[in-house]
Design brief:
The structure is a single chain. Helix content is 83%, strand content 0%. It contains two helices and no strands. It has one domain. The protein is an all-alpha fold.
Length: 70
């Protein structure tokens, strides 16, 4: 029988990077929507900030949902 290929520390590190990438992608999406709509720099920053908050909320929700099945 073969054991896991990653240590617990490697798995935690990968989860942190994946989570940060997910939140960053949602935040970038919010900024791109503001940019496409012709927003100012302040509105662009607001779009990125709002996207980061929404991305974090979505990440926490998905972690809770996945936790119920494992």
């Amino acid at each position: 029988m073969v054991g896991p290929s990653h240590t617990d520390e490697e798995r935690r590190s990968a989860n942190v990077r994946l989570s940060a990438g997910f939140v960053g992608l949602v935040a970038l999406s919010g900024g791109l929507v503001a940019l496409t709509a012709g927003g100012t720099l302040v509105q662009l920053g607001g779009g990125v900030a709002a996207g980061a908050v929404l991305g974090l909320a979505l990440l926490l929700f998905l972690r809770r949902l996945v936790g119920e099945f494992s």
